[in-house]
Specification:
There is one protein chain. The chain is α/β, with parallel strands linked by helices. About 45% of the residues lie in helices and about 15% in strands. The strands form 2 sheets. Strands 3-4-5-6-7-8-9-10 form an 8-stranded parallel barrel, surrounded by 5 helices. It starts with a strand and ends with a helix. This is Aldo/keto reductase. It comes from Cloacibacillus porcorum.
């Protein structure tokens, strides 16, 4: 495992960070994954208030001395905050869930336009500083799904200790400026943690025949997951890459991949492969859902990520059995009334109501 100095925090963190959003349903299995990661050198754990059950599971996993072996990171659910006092109330609840007295890093979660406005109105900066003085948090940061201009504004407005952005071989530009945003933060001395390196696994699940051929025909044999991670840790500005593993098998594969982690490892030919892979994905007619489930629950009970998954797989494979499986469901897209509530929570900025209609027309057609 490679470790890196994390900006001005004094922390020395593993470049592989465990994302705690997509644990298996079995609690004992999830605890085992967390402890196995720590036993194998992963010392950066990232969770959030709004990840269902995640903080409780992490808290249980860190009992028995594991808390002292890791840097613990979670996030303030600003979207649920109504007044200034709510922020400390949520933090105290998170500390109880995580069974700890302090957090190594506390982030303001997802500075979308509405959330960023609320942070400024309620003085979220003052809150972070008060929590530092009380010893409840050691370092302060933010995560963001927004434009490059919004990212620059956030970086320049406050004395942050870190930032977290979405970046992968597809999202090189749209999320916080992608690589440009990454370099901008680095120029300000800000360490950056990367989320969604595999787009919630959809990069792997939606692999086209053309992409498979590119990977299989390349002289160096690696999986798409390995190429995607390698492309990220090749960038010297990247501090930590979060991987939200769901199985022990995925964790062990990630640990193997990160054994070779280092900046500057990719050749010109390998960079060209990534460009060609990106082009094959861009040619696909697909919906960029990462299955984060922030859009749920839908007031009309539509299983939004499931609808998009059926659509993406059908557009990729043309498998008619996917249509039959979709039609057999009870929580299909035809229940959508275009209330647009889901769109306020989508980190990818998807026009969900419009896309549900398109997906339903294809899957029912």
């Amino acid at each position: 495992m490679e470790y890196i100095d994390f900006g001005k925090t004094g922390m020395r963190v593993s470049r592989f960070g465990l994302g705690c959003m997509r644990f298996p349903e079995d609690e004992s299995e999830a605890v085992g994954i967390i402890r196995c990661a720590i036993d194998n050198g992963v010392n950066y754990l990232d969770t959030a208030y709004i990840y269902p059950g995640s903080e409780e599971i992490v808290g249980k996993a860190l009992m028995g001395g594991y808390r002292d072996k890791t840097y613990l990171v979670t996030k303030c659910p600003v979207i649920h905050v109504s007044k200034y006092e709510d922020m400390e109330k949520f933090l105290d609840e998170e500390l109880l869930r995580l069974k700890t007295d302090y957090l190594d890093i506390y982030m303001l979660h997802n500075l979308s336009p509405g959330v960023w406005k609320k942070v400024k109105e309620l003085d979220g900066f003052k809150f972070l500083e008060e929590m530092q003085k009380k010893g409840k948090i050691l370092h302060k940061g933010f995560s963001i799904h927004n434009t490059f201009e919004a990212f620059k504004e956030a970086v320049d407005m406050y004395n942050w200790d870190m930032a977290q952005i979405q970046l992968n071989i597809l999202d090189e530009k749209p999320q916080a400026g992608g690589t440009e945003g990454l370099k901008y933060a680095a120029s300000r001395g800000l360490p950056v943690t990367i989320m969604e390196p595999l787009r919630g696994g959809s990069l792997i699940a939606d692999l086209s025949p053309e992409a498979k051929s590119l990977i299989e025909d390349f002289p160096v044999k690696r999986s798409l997951a390995e190429w995607a991670f390698r492309w990220l840790y090749n960038k010297p500005e990247v501090s930590v890459i979060l991987s939200g593993v769901s199985t022990m098998e995925q964790l062990k594969d990630n640990l193997r991949i990160f054994e070779d982690t280092a900046a500057g490892v990719m050749t010109e030919a390998e960079e060209e492969l990534i460009t060609k892979l990106r082009e094959t994905f861009e040619m696909q007619k697909r919906i960029g859902c990462t299955d984060c489930k922030y859009c749920l629950p839908c007031p009309k009970t539509v299983l939004i990520p499931s609808v998009f998954s059926y659509y993406n797989k059908y557009m990729l494979t043309g498998d008619e059995s996917l249509k039959e499986a979709y039609r057999a469901g009870q929580r299909k897209a035809d229940k959508c009334v275009s209330c647009h509530l889901c769109e306020k929570h989508c980190p990818q900025g998807l026009k969900i109501a419009e896309l549900l209609k398109e997906a339903h027309a294809v899957l029912e057609g």
